[in-house]
Write a structure and sequence with these properties.
With 424 residues, this protein is α/β, with parallel strands linked by helices. Helices cover 36% and strands 17% of the residues. It has 16 helices and eleven strands. It is globular and about 55 Å long. The mean pLDDT is 95.
Length: 424
């Protein structure tokens, strides 16, 4: 990756349509690499989740035109909540295959164009419309059910979930692109309106308007255009059955630092874990040579649509064993070391690995097609060591970060991507 840009995520951008939001992000990215011209961009990959929000089919084609990239190649990627992550990996594939030397990945969503209840209906269409949806299925309900099972089996607490919300909203205070920067307490989170027990509104990400772009290039072009390019060294993708009731039980998909005896009594995946996420992590780790993620990675940007799903995903990624995600949070491992969250943690028992220093979806917002690309841009800035330049403060800069992971998630774990990015 050689550059990236983000339009501020917000509840609404009534003054901007999707083309203008992408153009703002694109112009920002282009300014950072002044030697790159439009003529040098070989094509693009566009991502947005739903035609319903824009009320426009082929919206990515309109963006391609607006950016001045016609008649070059372009295609749209869609994969629910993982749309942005799939887009970034598709752009990487275009470069890795040799088809392109420079590829633009752009994503957007304009979710404010409909009422909240209508937006939730559109999002619910990403479940099985012949099975789950007709009986009232909606995503906060699905995730509430999952975490209820996680709490029952593993003893996860609502206070541990609240700590995730506190962390991510506090991190966002230092991120000018974030939608919901707030300083919270456990009481604040638990006393906020209940959406689906035990998830309160502060345990849930918000629908948003926003856009993000990433510019990827071959090593040859990256050397010419960028002083500090960042290499994508591992990509992985996993899937699972649309209906959770169809998911079979079996052995845990093991990561390099695990053994079967770690999980001899675990019923897997159940509804408490994302089998597709574990597969995506396994493939990305193999490709990047990751032996132990807690030791080999310096930070994670993951898909925390809910505070509970961050806990679940930390387990899927192998940052801790299955069942230990709540304790992983309570011990303070995923918190930034230089920020006072108003929480007390035990003395450090090992390496901390900040999770969602950007604020994640909980605090940044979730304009679906842009989210996975936004994660990539933040990881890019972290690995470049340029967060002070782009965020206008250096609070979120992780000292000497060499390797990071980004994770994008759709449905109840039906599409999941994991990508590993490294400083060169």
């Amino acid at each position: 990756m050689i550059s990236g840009g983000i339009t501020k995520f917000a509840k609404a951008h009534p003054d901007k349509d999707f083309r203008l939001m992408v153009k703002e992000s694109f112009d920002y990215a282009m300014k950072d690499i002044p030697n790159l011209t439009l003529e040098m961009i070989d094509g693009s990959i566009g991502s947005y989740f739903s035609d319903h929000f824009t009320r426009q089919l082929k919206a990515a084609s309109m963006v391609q035109d607006y950016l001045g990239l016609c008649p070059k190649p372009s295609k749209r990627i869609e994969g629910g909540g993982a749309t942005g992550g799939l887009c970034l990996q598709s752009a990487w594939e275009a470069i890795a295959s040799g088809r392109m030397e420079v590829c633009l990945a752009f994503g957007f969503e304009t979710m404010s164009r409909v009422n909240t209840w209508k937006g939730n209906e559109f999002i619910a269409h990403a479940s099985d419309t012949n099975f789950d949806y007709p009986v009232g299925g909606f995503y906060t309900g699905y995730y509430a059910m999952m975490v209820q099972r996680h709490m029952f089996e593993f003893g996860t607490t609502v206070e541990q979930m609240a700590m995730v919300s506190i962390k991510n909203h506090k991190n966002a205070l230092y991120n000018p692109y974030a939608q919901s920067p707030i300083d919270l307490t456990i009481k604040d989170v638990r006393s906020s309106p209940m959406v689906a027990t035990p998830l309160t509104i502060l345990d849930c990400c918000q629908m948003s308007d926003g856009a993000a772009v990433a510019i990827l290039a071959s090593e040859k072009m990256a050397e010419k255009l960028c002083d500090k390019p960042v290499k994508i060294t591992g990509v992985g993708c996993g899937t699972d059955c649309m209906r959770m009731a169809d998911r079979p039980h079996g052995k845990v998909i093991l990561l390099p630092h695990e053994s079967e005896k770690d999980y001899k009594n675990l019923k897997y995946p159940g509804v408490h874990s994302f089998r597709g996420g574990r597969m995506a992590a396994k493939l990305a780790y193999q490709m990047a040579g990751i032996r132990n993620p807690s030791e080999d990675l310096d930070f994670i940007e993951l898909h925390d649509a809910y505070s509970s799903s961050e806990i679940q995903t930390c387990e899927d990624l192998g940052l801790c064993k299955y069942g230990e995600g709540g304790n992983f949070v309570e011990m303070g491992y995923p918190f930034m070391p230089n920020i006072d969250y108003g929480l007390k943690f035990p003395k450090n028992r090992g390496k901390k690995i900040p999770v969602n220093p950007s604020g994640g979806l909980l605090a940044c917002g979730h304009p679906v097609g842009a989210t996975g690309i936004m994660q990539g841009v933040f990881a890019f800035w972290q690995l470049q060591g340029t967060t002070k330049k782009h965020l206008r403060n250096d609070t979120l800069q992780i000292k000497d970060a060499k390797r990071g992971l980004i994770h994008s998630h759709a449905g109840t774990g039906t599409y999941i991507t994991v990508s590993i990015m490294e400083r060169i």
